[in-house]
Amino acid sequence: MAVKVLKPGLSTTVQDLGRPGYYHIGIPISGGMDRFALRCANMLVGNKEGLAVLEAVFMGPELIFNADATVAVTGGELPPKVNGEARATWTSFKVKKGDVLSFDFLKKGARAYIAISGGIDVPVLLGSRSTYTLGALGGFKGRKLAEGDTLKIGKGRGAKEGRSIPEKLRRGPGSPAELRMLPGLYWHRITADAGKHFLDDTWKVAPEADRIGYRFKGGRKIEFVDRVPPFGAGSDPSNIVDACYPYGSIQIPSGTEPIVLHRDAVSGGGYFMVGAVVSVDMDLIGQLQPHTPVRFVEVTMVQALKARKDRAKILEKIRNIT
Amino acid sequence: MSKEILSPLPGTFYRKPAPDKPNFKSEGDTIAVGDVIGIIEVMKSFNEVKADKAGKIEKFVADNEEPVMAGQPLLELS
Questions:
Q1: CA–CA dist A300, A201 (Å, integer)
Q2: Given an 8 Å threshold on Cβ–Cβ distance, is A10 in contact with B42?
Q3: How many Å lie between the alpha carbon of B47 and the closest alpha carbon of chain A?
Q4: Counts for chain A of helices (H) and strands (E), in that order
Q5: Quick one: which of A16, A37, A55, A180 could link to A74 by a disulfide (CB 3.0–4.6 Å)?
Q6: In this complex, which of B6, B10, B47 lies closest to A290 when CB atoms are compared?
Q7: Quick one: A225 and A282 in the same domain?
Q8: What is the pTM of this model?
Q9: CA–CA dist B1, A283 (Å, integer)
């Protein structure tokens, strides 16, 4: 079975849970920006949680099916339509041979996950089907989808129609979105006042935010503690001797605009990191539109691990009902 | 009721192709389906907004460099 791309949307890519294990040699982890929604989409259509789906950002694609299948759309509120007729999000529905799947305007969030029973069957590269567009690696020919592409779909019986995830178990950012963060190794580089501003100020998502990193604007400038730059560090006060950048780390080049590194980020460099966003809130970042207000909320390691455990429980609940 | 052209994307709306260039379209212009009426900047890319309806531009509802949401009206047609 196959699906043909009639219209690609803005930037629609094949993603699964990612490509961990190669970050230390410069290959980012990639995978869905909102992996909770990605897992849910797969479960709704009867797939294994980690099969490849389509991640559509801000704008849906238009696809034509050459065989019957079960489909589910989760994540941001991007209402699907079959032959122009509305379908619910976070709910499985059937698509027949010859049907066209399209989308209404984005109502909420930023990224939708489109799962098709059987999963998108692209070659597995370094253990994953995810697309890393900057490196032209994985996914469909290492790039975002284009008009006329034909995607092979794996074999899968597909779940029945109407399988749904209750609204209280779905997840999206509030307004302002609250991103929990753990202060990191370089927190001492900024002044006590700057640390307070960073957490007190409301930031806004910059339009250039993408899969590599999310940039935030609008907070007060971060002031640094004076120092003599160590050997190997650049002269800007935000420079450090090159170090590894963890997934979720928050750098603030020259103290102006914080950037949270996301799934397609570079793995190292010379900017200090003020801390890292806790893993479970990385999904929320994937759903932030430009200009959305955001606050960073400081947590301890104990709180961060508790948040991860709580999220795992919700996922387990969903596994039991799908 | 007047017809509207809606923004397909969230981002920053621009009425002109470059800061030193004139607007794509002005109020009172007659536009055809497929005409470029502006640009939306998002994720480091600039995406042309093409008219999906024809008509005469009554007024622009979104200003140059204004942040817009997907589905938000950009202009009204008479």
A1: 20
A2: yes
A3: 9
A4: 4, 20
A5: A37
A6: B10
A7: yes
A8: 0.94
A9: 41
Contact A307, A314 (CB under 8 A): no
Contact check, Cβ <8 Å, B43/A289: no
Contacts of A58 in chain B (CB under 8 A): 9-11, 42, 70
Structure tokens at A7: 């219209």
DSSP state of A188: G
Q: What would the pLDDT profile of A131-171 be if each residue is shown by its tens digit? A: 999 999 999 999 999 999 999 999 988 899 999 999 999 99
Domains of chain B from N-terminus onward: 3-77 (2.40.50.100)
Which H/E stretch holds residue A109?
strand A108-116
Q: Are A50 and A130 in contact (CB under 8 A)?
A: no
**Is A18 part of any domain?**
yes
Averaged over successive runs of 10 residues, the pLDDT of chain A (322 residues) comes to 97 98 95 98 97 97 97 98 98 98 96 98 98 97 98 92 96 95 96 97 94 97 95 94 96 97 96 97 97 97 98 96 87
Question: Is the domain of A184 the same as that of A156?
Answer: no
For residue A158, give its domain range.
Answer: 2-169
Indicate whether A321 belongs to any domain: no
Which amino acid type is present at position A139? G
Q: Which two tokens stand for residue A13?
A: 């890519």
| Cβ–Cβ below 8 Å for A208 and B12 | no
A259 token code pair: 């950037």
Task: Give yes or no for a cis peptide into A176 (omega within 30° of 0).
Answer: yes
Looking at the structure, tell me whether residues A160 and A200 fall in a common domain. Answer: no
Note whether residue A165 is domain-resident.
Answer: yes
Please indicate, yes or no, if residue A213 is contained in any of the structural domains: yes
Radius of gyration (C-alpha) of chain A in whole angstroms: 20
Assembly ipTM: 0.83
For A259-298, what is each residue's pLDDT tens digit?
999 999 999 999 999 999 999 999 999 999 999 999 999 9
Where is the domain boundary, A125, A148, A169? Answer: A169
In the block, residue with structure tokens 């238009």:
A62
CA distance A69 to A53: 14
Contacts of B71 in chain A (CB under 8 A): 105-107
Residue type, B7: S
Which residues share a beta bridge with A53? A15
Same domain, A107 and A216: no
The answer to whether the CB atoms of B10 and A209 lie below 8 A apart is no
d(CA A167, CA A189): 43
